[in-house]
Amino acid sequence: MHEVIIIGAGPAGLNAALILGRCQRDVLVLDSGKPRNAASRALHGFLTRDGAPPMDLRKWGRDEIARYPSVKFRDLPVTGVERSDGGFELKLSDNSTERARLLLLATGRVDVVPEVAGFTEFYGRGVYHCPYCDGWEHRDQPLVVYGRNDSAASLALGLLTWSRDVTVCADSRPDWNAERQVELERNGIAVVENQVRAAEGHERLQRLTFADRDALACSAVFFCSDCLQRSTLPERLGCEFDDDGNVRCQQMAATNVPGLFVAGNVRGGIHLAIMAAAEGAEAGIAMNEALLDAELAAANSPAAT
Ligand SMILES: Cc1cc2nc3c(=O)[nH]c(=O)nc-3n(C[C@H](O)[C@H](O)[C@H](O)COP(=O)(O)OP(=O)(O)OC[C@H]3O[C@@H](n4cnc5c(N)ncnc54)[C@H](O)[C@@H]3O)c2cc1C
Predict the structure, then answer these.
(1) 0.85 cut: is pTM over it?
(2) Best exposed site among 35, 92, 113, 270 by fewest CB in 10 Å?
(3) Which of 30, 107, 246 to mutate to test the pocket of ligand 1 (most atoms within 8 A of CB)?
C-alpha cells in the first residue's frame, strides 16, 4: 500500500510528486504518455522555461524528482479504479494492481480539433486553441478565428491583443447577435460565411481555402471547441463536475470523494502548464497534511497509549 498514487505525469502530477518526495512520502506515479500539448512544438509562458519543447519539461521534472528516492514511476495506463478499505485499488494495463491510501488525479484534458482538412496536421504549429500559448509567435500577422458562435466572436476580439488583422471564418451564418456584429465591425474584424475547405501551406500554415471563394492568406488559425476529460477515472470514482466538465474542487485540491485529490487541467480555471504545476504543488501539500493528520490522530488515540 503506497501512501499516495498520482495518475498523470504532466506538470500537475510531477509537481505534486516533487513536493511529496520532499516530504519523504511513499509515492507511485503512473502515466500513459499522452500529454495535452503533445502536438505543440514549444511551451510558452512558463517562467524560466519559455520556448522549451514540452516533452523536455517532463524529462527535466523526472530528473529532478529522481533525487527523492521515495518516489517511483511506472509508465502504464490505469485501466480501472475502485475505492477499497482505507484507500484505492488500481488496475493497470498489464493486469497488475497497485494500492494507495490517497489518490491524485492529474489526468489532464484532450482538445477536440475541428474536422477540417489540414487542421490536425497543423495543430500546434499554425492551428491553435490558446492565444496566450501561441499568439506572440504570430503577432502583427493575419490571424483567423474558426467558429460561428459567440465564443468565436469573443476570441476574435481577444486576438486584437496580438494583431489588428483578424478574420472570423464561420462556415455559414454566424449565430451571435447584432450588437456583437457591430462590435466586430467597429474593430475591423471581417466575417467570412463561406464554408472552409482546408488549411494549407508548405511547412507552415499559409492559407485557408473555401468551398466557393478565393483562399484567405493567414499565418495562424485559432478555434474554440470542447476540451474533454482525458480519462473517465474521475467519473468512475464519483467526482462531481461543473457545467463545463471540470472536476469540482473543494479547498486545497480535495474533491467530494474522501481521499481523492485533483490537480491541473482536470480542474477548471486557467489551463496553462504553470497553473497545473502550481495546483500540483497545492495537492502535494494537501495530501501530506492529510497523511500527517491521520498519523497524529492515530498516535494520540487511546489505543496507541
Ligand atoms: C497545442 C497545445 C499547446 C499548448 N501550449 C501551451 C503553452 O505554450 N503554454 C502553456 O502553459 N500551456 C500550453 N498548453 C496547455 C498545456 O498542455 C496544459 O496546461 C498542461 O499540459 C496541463 O498539465 P496537466 O498535468 O494537467 O495535464 P497533461 O500535461 O495533459 O498530463 C496528463 C497526463 O495524465 C496521463 N493520463 C491520463 N489518463 C491516464 C490514465 N488512465 N493512466 C495513466 N496516465 C494517464 C496522460 O497520459 C498525461 O501524461 C497547450 C496545449 C495544447 C493542446
Answers:
(1) yes
(2) 270
(3) 107
